[in-house]
Design brief:
By secondary structure, this protein is an alpha/beta fold. The protein has seven helices and seven strands; from the N terminus they run E-H-E-H-E-H-E-E-H-E-H-H-E-H. It has one domain: Spore Coat Polysaccharide Biosynthesis Protein SpsA, Chain A (Alpha-Beta Complex). The protein is globular and about 60 Å long.
Length: 258
């Protein structure tokens, strides 16, 4: 069954922005300042949910301080490092909002660019950023270009930058995404798989503020290439249906006790 989109009334809509964190202690203060500015301008009720993915560098303690000292901030902490897909899944499982957003903690994208996304809701079930003028290393740019090109040719999703860490999703669709390790690379395609529409919006891109990337050439290439075949297998077997008619009899059958 295809999910229903949320109500179009802004007063009835809400947004939770997921922020997966793995060893980003040097970025969190500046990130929180940027998120504070976004919260002041968000056109709907918005909260931030940090997902600590087993950090070992003091990130959890700083997240706890941030959340206890500010309204609109919450966190969950995973027992160990599970990876980005699991962190996003855990965040979605802990949301009750009508929309779910996502941003990385490394400050290479700005939460203020999420303001560009709202005009495309609810007519689109996902708005996905396209990182413009990327401030990445040569190796990172090339590996991303190869992985994106291979994915587009293999699954025909027409998504320019599936790995952009700026997204807003209809929460009903997000909760129905079939999750697997590596699914974060296919979120737009997984929304499309349900019949949802995806809008792509250009966003800013910056050099990493602090810390180090958790990805290298091997997992930037081999992981996406391998997961693309897994996605193709899953898509062929994905169950989707629409109910044409329904009747529910409200009269219950009661049996007398003798």
């Amino acid at each position: 069954m295809l999910p229903e989109s949320p109500t179009t009334s802004p007063q009835m809509q809400s947004l939770t922005v997921l922020v997966p964190v793995y060893n980003e202690v040097d970025c969190l203060v500046r990130l929180t300042e940027a998120l504070d500015a976004f919260l002041l301008q968000s056109p709907m009720a918005t909260e931030i949910l940090f997902i600590n993915d087993g950090s070992t560098d003091g990130s959890l303690a700083l997240i706890q301080t941030i959340c206890h000292s500010r309204s609109g901030y919450s966190y969950i902490s995973l027992s160990q490092n599970h990876g980005l897909s699991t962190a996003i899944k855990a965040g979605i499982d802990h949301c009750s909002s009508t929309y779910i957003g996502y941003i990385d903690a490394d400050l290479q994208t700005s939460p203020m660019d999420l303001l560009l996304f709202f005009e495309h809701l609810p007519q689109y079930q996902m708005v996905n950023g396209i990182r413009m003028h990327r401030k990445d290393t040569f190796v990172k740019k090339i590996s991303s270009r190869i992985a994106n090109g291979f994915r587009r040719r293999m699954i025909q999703d027409n998504i320019a930058d599936t790995g952009c860490p700026l997204k807003i999703m209809d929460a009903v669709y997000a909760r129905r995404v079939p999750f697997f390790d590596g699914m974060h690379r296919f979120l737009p395609a997984l929304i499309q798989l349900q019949g949802g529409k995806v809008k792509q919006v250009p966003v800013q891109h910056f050099e990493r503020y602090a810390g180090t990337s958790k990805y290298h050439l091997f997992n930037r290439l081999w992981g996406p290439l391998n997961d693309t075949f897994a996605f193709r297998w899953m898509r062929k077997r994905y169950i989707r249906y629409t109910v044409a008619e329904e009747f529910v009899n409200q009269k219950a059958v009661r049996h007398e006790q003798v």
